[in-house]
Amino acid sequence: MMDRNSGRPIALMLLIPAQIFCAAFFVVDLFRDFGDTGSMTPTDPHLYVEAFAAVTLAVSVMFEISYLLRPSSVAAQGASGEQPGHGQCRRARRDRGAF
């Protein structure tokens, strides 16, 4: 599912808020479990599963947002309409100091 005008995946933009909600849920539940004295110990595997899920979701959201913030191939074409790959990308990397 892509927006034809922007070239950005709409499904990814819809998935990010759902993942943020899930990560927040796991973090809140993790703090509640720690707050319940006597019900959980720091060695309980349940806490590690929730912490792993929250960290994984947070990292995936950061990766997806960075993907969406990258310049699209439409913007990389420039004003000439030339497809990237005809020396443009190499020149752009050289100009930025990246090889």
Topology:
Blueprint: H1 10-35, H2 45-69, H3 73-76, H4 88-96
List key phrases describing it.
mainly alpha, 4 helices, 0% strand, elongated
What does the model show?
With 99 residues, the chain is mostly helical. Helix content is 65%, strand content 0%. It contains four helices and no strands. The two termini are 33 Å apart. 2% of the residues are buried.
Which value, in Å, is the CA radius of gyration?
A: 21 Å
- Model regions low in confidence, pLDDT < 50 over at least 5 residues: none
> In which range does the helix fraction lie?
55-70%
Structural class category: mainly alpha
Rounded to the nearest angstrom, the distance between the terminal CA atoms is 33 Å
Overall mean pLDDT stands at 74
Q: What gross morphology would you assign?
A: elongated
- The helix/strand order is HHHH
Q: How many E strands?
A: 0
How do you describe this structure in short?
The protein has 99 residues and is mainly alpha-helical.
